[in-house]
Write a structure and sequence with these properties.
The protein is of the alpha+beta class. Helices cover 15% and strands 20% of the residues. The termini are close together. The chain contains two helices and seven strands. A four-stranded mixed sheet has the order 1-2-6-7. 23% of the residues are buried. The N terminus is likely disordered. The chain is globular. It has one domain.
Length: 132
């Protein structure tokens, strides 16, 4: 898998994205772009990157804080010194993640390099032809 990516999409040109879970992630090379819907793997990624579950959209737990125009899923992460979204619980984050059938796309960390905090939340149906 090559690492040629478009900055806004985080998806590699022409290469399939490997779907991983907590058991198979380590089989992929460092720096590769992978997709998952495994809650434990997503939480581990967030912990490594000091990311906290958040939303910009109005939900039952509170009002909208940022107009994000993303098809209403509205879930994001807050990072240290860049927390502009409303914090929510992991339960609420995963409820939205599952309700909108999302996949978490991210770049695997490379040992010796600053971890990449780049990620995308993409509806699974948009990745059908690009996920292995």
């Amino acid at each position: 898998m090559t690492n040629r990516m478009t900055s806004p999409s985080l998806l590699p040109y022409g290469d399939p994205v490997r779907r991983v879970d907590r058991h198979s992630e380590g089989e992929q090379p460092p720096g590769s772009i992978v997709a998952t819907d495994d809650p434990e793997l997503i939480r581990r990624w967030a912990l490594r990157h000091r990311a906290e579950p958040a939303t910009g959209e109005a939900t039952e737990s509170g009002p909208a804080v940022v107009d994000v125009h993303d098809g209403d899923a509205g879930i994001r992460f807050n990072f240290p010194a860049a927390a502009k979204f409303r914090p929510i619980t992991w339960d609420e984050w995963f409820e939205n993640f599952k309700a909108y059938h999302l996949m978490f796309i991210y770049e695997r960390d490379t040992p010796g390099k600053t971890p990449s905090g780049r990620y995308r939340l993409v509806p699974g149906h948009k990745l059908v032809e690009t996920i292995l």
